[in-house]
Specification:
It is a single chain. By secondary structure, the chain is an alpha+beta fold. Helix content is about 25%, strand content about 30%. A hairpin with a 2-residue loop joins strand 15 and strand 16. The longest helix is centred in the C-terminal third of the chain and has 22 residues.
Length: about 350
């Protein structure tokens, strides 16, 4: 790597690896970002909170010609792209100090934090225009409260407040006689006493949300939902791409690692209004910014009712890689363009090193 001038200079904040001088994250994505940035005269490097100093940063750079990563010292970047892997790391003094310092300098800290599902719901439900697109949601408090809600609504999804990838998601239902727990593609029938005992074991380990089940459209009698990638652009959040995930037969989970299947969006495109989805992305984005400050990207898990209306089940920070190559490629290109736009709005000085 020769001494040169680069703009924008993007620092990708990652988690430390298991060994010294290593880091976590998707190397393929990091390389793609670096490659795309070099096309516009920019550069990216990877660093951890331990690598950040008052006047410079010790970071990792990919040497494409040698196909290896090396470490060197960089100037303070024009913006930080937060790709930390663990929630607990975002509560550390080092992370909070870095974030505060960067924001005090008027620079963008891309991805403020992992989202808390309950906090996000409270932020979204403040919008009266969004209310009709959100399932009724509550925090799990007591088993008696849960039984009352099942008596009223008959079917609820339960989700860990800080869960991801469909892990720890169950469906609970009551038909007036028996209770049921659905786990992935397994259904267990209970009398109330046994249901209470097993449900308490499931939900007492960590904070859970209760979410009223909404009947949504199906493919081949299987659940499906839309995975919608949204990116900030010129003051609003716009949809970059839409993937579709179809659950396995009799399963409540659409995630591919749990048996879900990737379906082309064209297969369900005529079942929903894309204008309504665009509106949803913009409106959700505004509410998130009001709650968290600048949010560069997020994804939405959306179901479609039989009447064609979207139902917003979940909003995710730091969206996972999309398996659809066209969406992921467009994502890298548009993200790098956004990096340049944001950096131009705060600093136009090329970094020389």
């Amino acid at each position: 790597m020769k001494n040169a001038s680069y703009f924008p200079l993007v620092g990708i904040l990652s988690s430390p690896g298991k060994t010294e001088d290593s880091f976590r994250g998707n190397l393929k994505v990091f390389k793609a970002i670096q490659k795309e940035l070099t096309k516009i005269g920019g550069l990216s490097f990877i660093f951890t909170t331990n690598d950040f100093n008052e006047h410079d940063v010790n970071g990792y750079f990919y040497y494409e010609h040698a196909d290896k990563w090396g470490k060197r010292t960089f100037p303070i970047p024009d913006l930080i792209y937060n790709k930390i892997s663990f929630r607990k790391e975002e509560s550390s003094a080092l992370f909070l100090s870095l974030k505060q310092t960067f924001e005090n300098d008027g620079k963008y800290f891309f991805n403020p934090c992992f989202f808390d599902k309950w906090e996000v719901y409270l932020a979204l439900v403040k919008s009266t225009t969004l209310n009709g697109y959100l399932p009724k949601t509550w925090m799990f408090t007591t088993i008696n409260d849960l039984l009352e809600k099942l008596n009223t609504y008959h079917s609820l999804y339960v989700k860990p407040v800080n869960g991801h990838k469909g892990q720890g998601v169950y469906k609970l239902s009551y038909d007036g006689t028996s209770y049921y727990i659905y786990k992935k593609n397994q259904t267990i029938n209970y009398v109330q006493a046994d249901f209470v005992q097993d449900t308490e074991k499931l939900l007492m380990k960590k904070p859970y949300l209760l979410q009223k089940e909404i009947q949504t459209d199906t493919i081949d009698d299987c659940k499906y939902d839309l995975r919608i990638l949204c990116l900030y652009e010129k003051g609003v959040h716009k949809i970059i791409g839409i993937g579709v995930r179809k659950a396995d037969e009799n399963s409540i989970i659409t995630h591919v690692p749990n048996g879900g299947e990737i379906i082309p969006f064209q297969q369900v495109q005529d079942r929903c209004s894309e204008d309504k989805l665009d509106w949803l992305a913009e409106t959700v984005g505004r509410q998130l910014i009001e709650r968290y400050g600048f949010v560069g990207e997020f994804s939405m898990d959306v179901g479609i009712t039989p009447q064609g209306e979207p139902i917003l089940f979940e909003v995710n920070s730091k969206p996972m890689i999309f398996d659809e190559v066209d969406i992921q490629t467009k994502r890298i290109e548009r993200t790098v363009k956004l990096f340049a736009d944001l950096a131009n709005s705060t600093s136009q000085n090329k970094k020389e090193f």
